[in-house]
Amino acid sequence: MTMAKNVEELFTLQPVVMKQLQTIFDKNRLAHAYIFDGEKGTGKVDIMQFFVKLMLCEHPHQNVPCETCRNCRRVDSGNHPNIHQIYPDGQFIKIDQVRELIAEMKMVGVEEGRKIYVLHHADRLNIASANMILKFLEEPDGEVTAILLTEQMQSILPTIRSRCQHIKFQKMPRQVLLKHLQENNIPHSMASTVSMMTNELETAIFLANDEQFAHARKTVLKLVEAIRQNVHEAMLVVHEEWLPLFKEKSEIEQALDLLLFAYRDIVSIKANPEAACTYPDMLQSFKETALHSTYERLSSQMEAILQARASLQRNMNRTLMMEQLMLNLQEGYTFV
Prior knowledge:
The chain is elongated. The chain is built from 16 helices and five strands. The relative contact order is 0.09. A five-stranded parallel β-sheet has the order 2-3-4-1-5, with helices on both faces. It has helices at 7-13, 15-26, 44-56, 70-77, 95-106, 127-138, 158-161, 174-183, 188-197, 201-208, 211-229, 231-245, 249-271, 283-291, 295-313, 318-330; strands at 33-37, 83-86, 115-119, 144-150, 165-168. The protein is of the alpha/beta class.
């Protein structure tokens, strides 16, 4: 159980959560149960490790674990006898796992001090194991702290939720995600695009390396360029490239999102030529478009894309939908 990230990184990722946990420790207000609730990639496991180490550290300094005492070292090596972690066995956390955990927690003489147990994917407790944990939460034995990690807060029994202090993790800030993508050798232009599609690092890396996504991005940008020229060019790209490429509903949704981000870029650039964009590689072209368009026009173009997305949900014929969208996007383009 190593501290995968240093304290500064954890503060960059989750400033509010880190301050909250340090204040709890500083004022000696440790609750007997916490739910760490946040999407994948928000740092829940790293921050849980920080908090566990802080609670057990022999010489904490300014609410940060010392990293050198016997307890810190044992937490790092994963063999501290007072820490118990449970992961789902298959689809669920099963009652036998919880029974075994409670037996271990009640064993006398293992080690003095606080005992900590961590339930990973706590939303996957089945009914029997959830009820057994609930009983243990209501009547903890001595100095015990539970940390329940989840991406699906609403799937945890309300009776369990009400007995835990809720720690809400925010999505990864875009700047942090961009930095991680850069460290993974993702080109800046692609990193800028995928960081608008997801806040989750693994998904972002997958998209950035996915040929299908790269092709989708290229096709969307080709369409934006065609719309600048005239409606015939736009219709040509729709029929020859867009419709053959985007067949599934989810693919069309993603493509329309990518198209919407292009127009958002143009609006941002019109307001501030130095704005951070989804498509930094299109900056010159978008600056030109921004110059020849009004905010009102750009706003109605974005509205047209949102309407197309809504008509997709109503199962409108996608060829008809795209032709209508091209006409709506084309109207009012005035080039000097």
